[in-house]
Design goal:
heterodimer; A: 194 residues; mainly alpha; Arc Repressor Mutant, subunit A; 60% helix; elongated; B: 241 residues; alpha/beta; six-stranded mixed sheet; 7 helices; 32% helix
């Protein structure tokens, strides 16, 4: 989530103060993404430096300093909304690494490791669904944010299910005590070890 | 809380000798009134068998099933039929609606079979359909409804009246996610009214509506989610991983 563009979006509704922007951000995202007020002020200063917002100079630097979006800020916000987000996956997905390690380490049951992550994902999803179920009927930001988290976690669960099934079909896992032959897959797994 | 459904060391074996299949192995499960439990597991893990045994549609090879404290295997067949008709609501994957009856008649039927007056049964059924956004389609026959609409009729029929146990097999399978959510809100509302719910699903989003998710593998219950933590746990960095 770009805090920079979220603040521009909030300011596009009218001038506001740092603390009020922080509260509005958390309310709009259903408090799923907590935001430090220091982060808000630092981002506002950078936006001002870049000419995307301007402040009421007379009020000094205190909490009563009001910010408003500039024409350049509005153009930046409009362009950002239409630009595809960065779709590059993280260079090393931590969960994938944990499962790869569990395949390697002697005495570890990779299926138990997978189940522990599956259960934790479901517990997190239950929490998000409870948030959504408890939202007021006219609330829109919260269900949208929660759905995004639910779809992301559902994707993780589906990957865990697929990994579980694939590992069960595999004749020789690297940490299995039974004699095995070196395979292309097991070589790749060792290469991927951090 | 009252335990509404209890499975004690329930096993189910199909076939004998080399073709013997252990569909369920000593499964223990308790579901309280007001609780919604989701059963997850890969294909062939015993999910549907567990559901049909819980609903007394099939008998376990060994072990006991209790509904509302009564041992199902000790009931007469008439009592068991009454239990299924009066106390248990089912949502099957293929809906099992009667094609010669309208949506409204399908939903009202369990009430009418149970001796509820026609007018009252139909008014209750109409209200149940309206709660699922199906009020205007109450006069349609199942063949004139889409898959998703038929599914909502099946849900309305399963929760109508004074049910104590709701059993569902992939209850939102044919629905898009927003329509599926409406169904789950209805199921949750039924549970909040005191119904014990058990649903079988592959879908993690659907399962996340449950109070508890139970994981099944090779016929055994291997794990379950912890009781709900406070909402502040969602704000912990790295939750879900």
């Amino acid at each position: 989530m770009s805090v920079r563009h979220a603040l521009l979006a909030l300011l596009s509704e009218g001038p506001s103060f740092g603390l009020r922007l922080q509260q509005a951000f958390e309310a709009r995202t259903g408090e799923v993404w907590p935001l430090n007020v220091g982060q808000v002020y630092m981002t506002l200063q950078r936006l001002e430096r870049d000419g995307l917002v301007e402040s009421d100079e007379l009020a000094g630097d205190g909490p009563q300093k009001a910010y408003r979006i500039t024409a350049a800020g509005s153009s930046e916000l409009d362009a950002w909304m239409r630009t595809p987000p960065s779709s590059e996956p993280p260079p090393r997905d931590e969960l994938v690494i944990k499962v790869l390690v569990a395949v390697q380490v002697p005495g570890v049951d990779v299926h138990e490791v997978i189940q522990a992550h599956r259960r934790q994902c479901l517990e997190a999803m239950q929490g998000f669904t409870r948030l959504k179920a408890g939202a007021a009927p006219d609330e829109i930001s919260l269900p949208l944010v929660v759905d995004a988290e639910l779809f992301r976690l559902e994707g993780v669960v589906r990957w865990l299910d697929a990994a579980d099934a694939r590992l069960r079909q595999h004749p020789n896992l690297p940490n299995d005590d039974r004699p095995r032959e070196e395979t292309a897959t097991s070589r790749r797994v060792r290469v991927g070890r951090p | 809380m009252t335990v509404m459904l209890e499975l004690r060391a329930v096993s189910k074996t199909y076939g004998t000798g080399p073709t013997e299949v252990h569909a369920l192995r000593e499964a223990d499960l308790s579901v309280e009134a007001g609780e919604l439990v989701a059963i997850m597991g890969p294909s062939g893990s015993g999910k549907s068998t567990l559901l049909t045994i819980a609903g007394s549609l099939e008998e376990p090879t060994t072990g006991d099933v209790r509904v509302g404290g009564a041992v199902v295997s000790e009931m007469s067949s008439a009592d068991r039929a009454r239990l299924r008709r009066r106390s248990i609501g089912y949502v099957f994957q293929d809906f099992n609606l009667l094609s010669g009856l309208t949506a409204l008649e399908n939903v009202a039927m369990p009430l009418e079979l149970d001796g509820v007056g026609l007018r009252h049964a139909r008014a209750t059924a109409q209200q149940g359909l309206e709660e699922l956004g199906m009020g205007e389609l109450a006069g349609r026959f199942p063949d004139d409804l889409s898959g998703g609409e038929r599914q909502r009729v099946a849900i309305a029929r399963a929760v109508v009246g004074d049910r104590r146990l709701l059993l569902a097999d992939e209850p939102t399978g044919a629905l898009d996610s927003v329509s599926g959510e409406a169904v789950m809100r209805r199921v949750r509302a039924a549970c909040q009214g005191g119904v014990a719910g058990v649903m079988v699903t592959h879908d993690a989003q659907l399962a996340s509506w449950a109070d508890r998710v139970v994981f099944l593998r090779d016929g055994s219950i291997v794990d379950q989610t912890a009781p709900p933590p406070g909402p502040e746990s969602l704000l912990t960095p790295g939750s879900g991983r």
